[in-house]
Amino acid sequence: MTADAGWHPDVAYVVLPSKGQGQDRVTVIRTTEALVLAVADGSGGMRGGAEAAEHAVRMISDAARQANAQHPEWCASLITRIDATPAVSRGQCALVVAVVVENTIVGASAGDCGAWLVTDRIDELTEEQVRKPLVGSGSAVPVAFKADLGKGTLLLASDGLLKYAPRARIAALARGPDLDAVAHHIAELPRLRSGALPDDVGVVLCRDRAR
Ligand SMILES: [Mn+2]
Question: What separation in Å is there between the alpha carbon of 108 and the centre of ligand 1?
Fold first, then answer.
């Protein structure tokens, strides 16, 4: 064992706006014990979607520094808290939050941002999610999830990836060796021949470097 033996998660993320600043936001927060990851997708049909997504990731950053983030219900109660204190613009967003502590993943989502654990197969951790109403409506329904990271790659993403890229392609890329390159290549999957993106893409990846 080397001097810095211990838990060294590898993390990478990419956000690609379809135009302007877009409305997807991601955050990665490393605390001493945990890694807190989130993807927020501001609702495009509503004014203030980007502000809602920014507001959500700001609240997550603030909360991540408090204790207790490893509790299985922490992410769901955090989403409830964000839902109950919307952005000034009263915009809304879809949101997925995950906390990784060594081998354990706990998380929650509301809306259609998803979390997958990619191994030799895809575990759709957010399979049971409730997609409407969105966070900021005051009546979002966060659904928690839990998994073991193992040798897998955890992927959090907005619908701009999950709706517009083939699942098998996402998973095949997610198994690649260089996580930064993986994030970049996955985020480019939805790009159309015209060069445009059908929607903003937000993606965060995490895995154990020692896997
Ligand atoms: Mn979207």
Answer: 18
What is the whole-number distance in angstroms between the Cα of residue 50 and the centre of ligand 1?
A: 11
Contact status, residue 203 vs residue 185, Cβ threshold 8 Å: no
pLDDT tens for each residue of 10-38: 999 999 999 999 999 999 999 888 999 99
CA distance 41 to 11: 20
Q: How far is the CA of 210 from the centre of ligand 1 (A)?
A: 33
pTM above 0.85, yes or no: yes
Q: Which CATH number fits domain 10-207: 3.60.40.10, 3.40.720.10, 3.20.20.140, 3.30.530.20?
A: 3.60.40.10
* Cα dihedral value 167, 106, 135, 61, nearest 10: -110
Distance 52 CA to ligand 1 centre (A): 13
What does the pLDDT look like over 116-139, one tens digit per residue?
A: 999 999 999 999 999 999 999 999
| Of the candidates 38, 34, 10, the residue with the CA atom closest to the CA atom of residue 100 | 34
